[in-house]
Structure formats: C-alpha cells, structure tokens
Amino acid sequence: MGEQRQRYNEEFKKQTVKYIQEQTKTLSDVAEDLNIPKSTLSQWMTKYRQFDQESVNHPEKIRNLEQTLRANEAEQRRKDREIEDLKEELAILKKALHIFSKEKN
After folding, report:
1. Distance between CA 3 and CA 59 in Å, rounded?
2. CB neighbours of 55 closer than 8 A, spacing ≥ 6?
3. From CA 13, how far away is CA 41, in angstroms rounded?
C-alpha cells in the first residue's frame, strides 16, 4: 500500500514560513529539521511569504537598508535647514511688521 500523505492546516503553514524567514539556515536544512519535503516548503514560501519578516542577514539587503537610511537622513537634514530658514524669515517679518506698525510722532 502507498504511504499516506501528511496534511497541514493553514496556520501551521504560515507559522512554518515565518520560522523559515527568521532562520539563517538554508531551506534544505529546515526541511530536514522539520521532516517536510523541501519542495513542499518552497510551495509554502511562495504562497505565504511576507517580506517584512525577512531577516537582515543578506549583504544586499543590508546595503539597501543603509542606502535608504542615508537618503532619509539627508532628507531630514534638508527639511531641518528649510525649517530653520523659515523660522529666520518669520522672525525678520515679525520685526519688520513691528517697526512699520508703530505710529509716527
């Protein structure tokens, strides 16, 4: 007789994919650890993978995150300079308004 196939519920599949994403092990290693065929895990990864749960252990992802961080910091510095310039302009306008609104004797 043939071997009976193991059935897994949706929650188990999602949790397994999350576990895989959090590991630094290869998919083959995880498949061996869980005693589930690698092809099955690959199918689950395709269906349930959520990229916000990816680990940050790949050099390319680290470079992309660093680049994004540098861009965000540059944008923040630009905005800070703009705010300071606007504050200075506002102070000048307030002084000018005060000077020109005084009644002349």
Report:
1. 42
2. 21, 22, 23, 24
3. 8
Digit-coded pLDDT (tens) for 67-79: 999 999 999 999 9
Among 21, 36, 55, residue at a domain's last position: 55
Rounded to whole angstroms, how far apart are CA atoms 36 and 44? 11
Q: Which of 55, 70, 85 is the last residue of a domain?
A: 55
Angle at 39 between CA 7 and CA 52, to 5 degrees: 90
Count structural domains, the chain: 2
pTM of the predicted structure, to 2 decimals: 0.43
| Top-confidence range, 35-39, 51-55, 56-60, 85-89 | 85-89
2 falls within a domain: no
Tokens of 8: 């897994």
Same domain? For 45 and 65 the reply is no
Q: List Cβ neighbours of 25 (8 Å cut-off, separation of 6 or more).
A: 33
What is the identity of the amino acid at 20? I
